[in-house]
Specification:
This protein is mainly alpha-helical. It contains five helices and no strands. The chain has one domain (about 1-125). Helices cover about 80% and strands about 0% of the residues.
């Protein structure tokens, strides 16, 4: 189950990358933030039975921390302030949490962190202007 969740998350991140490159949405960072949230929630949903069997009531925070972290950038973009900081904090939290739980369920959350890191990198690059 863990391998399925990890491979699915990697495939979803690659799919989002291809869609952003091919479709060129108006705000690719918004797409990446929402995709990171959806991927994180789906990974948590897939891993819930496994984690509850293994860890009992601790499954709430083991799975909840990455979900809450992935929700922060989506909430920050609603207010349109410091979204790059929310992206960075969420990416760091998910990465650190994924590494702490790396021998168990943590690796499945790391692909979503890649999307959030990409939004931080994209925030620092200037947009190309289209010629008129």
């Amino acid at each position: 189950m863990l391998a399925l969740a990890t491979i699915g998350a990697i495939a979803a991140v690659l799919l989002v990358g291809v869609v952003v490159l091919v479709r060129r949405p108006a705000d690719p960072r918004r797409v990446a933030r929402w995709a990171a949230l959806v991927i994180t929630v789906l990974v948590a949903a897939v891993l819930t039975p496994y984690t509850v069997d293994d860890s009992g009531t601790a499954a709430g925070y083991l799975l909840g921390v990455p979900v809450v972290a992935a929700a922060l950038p989506v909430l920050a973009q609603r207010f349109d302030r410091l979204t790059w900081l929310a992206d960075l904090v969420a990416a760091l939290v998910i990465t650190i949490w994924g590494l702490l739980l790396g021998l168990g369920i943590g690796g499945a959350f790391l692909p979503a962190a890649v999307l959030l890191i990409a939004t931080v990198v994209a925030a620092g690059t200037p947009r190309r202007s289209t010629p008129a």
